Q: What sequence folds into this?
C-alpha cells in the first residue's frame, strides 16, 4: 500500500505570508510517512513563524522516532498563550502512518480530521463511508482550556484522511448562505461530490480542488483566513520506469531492452541514443512528434508501448529545474515532470556509458553529466514530493 500525501494552501486575502504551515517526511526504509499541519495565531508573518516553529519541532521529534503522542503533548504544554486574545499561539494536526495501515493521529485545536473509506461494490462502483473513530483525550498539564485528541486507527486501501485549518470550515461565516461558515459537514459534502466524480483522484489534485472551491465560497473570493487542506490517500502504488543513457557494456543492450519491455507500469525513455537502442533491440520504430516542437527544448518522439520519449540531458536538466521550482512549461521537460509526479514508485535505469557530447564547450555550462542530474532529480522527488525512488546504474 502506498501513502499518497499532499497539501494545498491559500493565503488570507491581502497577506504576503501563509499563516498555516505544513511539513511532511517519508522514510522508505521504515515504510513510514509523517506529516504536520499547524495553524498560527492570526495571519501574516507572525502567524507563519508560529506555525513554522510548531510544525518543525513536531516533525523533528517524529523524525528522531519519538512517540508522536508524547511529542505532541510536549508541544501542547509548551506553546504560550497570547496575552491579548487569551488563546494558543498555534494549533496543529499530526499523523504518523505506516504502509501496513497502522496510524496514529493527534489533534490540538484544529478541526476534526475527516476519514473516508472507499470500497467498490458488486457493480464496480466506488461507495464512500465517513468513519468516526474513537479517541483518547489528554488534558494539558499547563493550560486548563487546552487538550488534545489521540486516535489509533487502521487504514485500508481506498481510505482517505483529510486535515484542514479552520480557514476551511469557517469560510463565509456570517453570510446568508453560511451563517456558521462552511463547517466540517459542508466540507465533507464537497469532498464526497468530487470523489463520486473521480474516485481515484490523487491527494495533490484533491487538496488543490478543495482549496479552490473554498475560495469560490468566500465573499468576493477573498479569504478572511489562511486556508490549508492536507490530503492522504491509501492506494496501490503507481509504478514507473525511466530508461536514460546507453548501458556501459554494449553486449547488455538486449538484456536491458527486454527488461524495459517487461516492466509492468508506465515507461519513459530520455535520450535519443537510448531510444535508438530500444528501437533496435525490440524492433520497434521511433518517430519524431512534429507537433511537440516548440520552445528551446527538443521535441518528443513516439514509440509503441512507451508512454513518453524525450531527448536526454537537456530535457533532464530542465525537468530538474521545474521540479525544484514546482512549476513547468508546456514542453518536453514539463511532460516528463508530469510523468514523474503522476507516479508513486519511480525507477531510473541509468546507462553509464560516457557521452562525449556532454563535454562540448558550446553547450550551456549548467548542463551536468547525466548521473549527477538523475541523482538530483531523485533527491527532489524524495524530499519535496515524497516519492519512492530507486536508481540503478548499468
A:
Amino acid at each position: 500500500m502506498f501513502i499518497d500525501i499532499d497539501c494545498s494552501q491559500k493565503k488570507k486575502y491581502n497577506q504576503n505570508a501563509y499563516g498555516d504551515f505544513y511539513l511532511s517526511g517519508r522514510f522508505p526504509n521504515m515504510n513510514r510517512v509523517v506529516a504536520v499541519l499547524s495553524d498560527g495565531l492570526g495571519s501574516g508573518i507572525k502567524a507563519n513563524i508560529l506555525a513554522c516553529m510548531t510544525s518543525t519541532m513536531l516533525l523533528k521529534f517524529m523524525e528522531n522516532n519519538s512517540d508522536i503522542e508524547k511529542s505532541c503533548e510536549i508541544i501542547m504544554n509548551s506553546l504560550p498563550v497570547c496575552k491579548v486574545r487569551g488563546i494558543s499561539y498555534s494549533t496543529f494536526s499530526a499523523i504518523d502512518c505506516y504502509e501496513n495501515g497502522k496510524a496514529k493521529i493527534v489533534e490540538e485545536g484544529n478541526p476534526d480530521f475527516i476519514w473516508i473509506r472507499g470500497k467498490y461494490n458488486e457493480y464496480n462502483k466506488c461507495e464512500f463511508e465517513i468513519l468516526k473513530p474513537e479517541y483518547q483525550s489528554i488534558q494539558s498539564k499547563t493550560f486548563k482550556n487546552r487538550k488534545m485528541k489521540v486516535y489509533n486507527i487502521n487504514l485500508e486501501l481506498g481510505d482517505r484522511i483529510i486535515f484542514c485549518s479552520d480557514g476551511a470550515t469557517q469560510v463565509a461565516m456570517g453570510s446568508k448562505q453560511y451563517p456558521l461558515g462552511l463547517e466540517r459537514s459542508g466540507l465533507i459534502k464537497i469532498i464526497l461530490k468530487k470523489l463520486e466524480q473521480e474516485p481515484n483522484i490523487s491527494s495533490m489534485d484533491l487538496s488543490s480542488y478543495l482549496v479552490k472551491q473554498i475560495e469560490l465560497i468566500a465573499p468576493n473570493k477573498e479569504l478572511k483566513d489562511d486556508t490549508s487542506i492536507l490530503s492522504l490517500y491509501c492506494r496501490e502504488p503507481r509504478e514507473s520506469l525511466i530508461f536514460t543513457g546507453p548501458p556501459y557494456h554494449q553486449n547488455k543492450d538486449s538484456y536491458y531492452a527486454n527488461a524495459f519491455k517487461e516492466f509492468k507500469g508506465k515507461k519513459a525513455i530520455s535520450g535519443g541514443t537510448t531510444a535508438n537502442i530500444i528501437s533496435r533491440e525490440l524492433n520497434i520504430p521511433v518517430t519524431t512528434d512534429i507537433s511537440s516542437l516548440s520552445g528551446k527544448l527538443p521535441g518528443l518522439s513516439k514509440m509503441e508501448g512507451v508512454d513518453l520519449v524525450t531527448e536526454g540531458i537537456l530535457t533532464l536538466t530542465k525537468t530538474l529545474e521545474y521540479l525544484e521550482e514546482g512549476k513547468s512549461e508546456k514542453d518536453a521537460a514539463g511532460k516528463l515532470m508530469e510523468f514523474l509526479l503522476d507516479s508513486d514508485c519511480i525507477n531510473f535505469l541509468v546507462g553509464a556509458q560516457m557521452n562525449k557530447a556532454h563535454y562540448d564547450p558550446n553547450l550551456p555550462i549548467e548542463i551536468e553529466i547525466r548521473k549527477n542530474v538523475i541523482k538530483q532529480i531523485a533527491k527532489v522527488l524524495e524530499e519535496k514530493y515524497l516519492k519512492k525512488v530507486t536508481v540503478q546504474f548499468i
About this structure: Confidence is low (pLDDT under 50) at residues 363-367. The CA atoms of residues 360 and 367 lie 10 Å apart. The chain is about 30% helix and 30% strand.
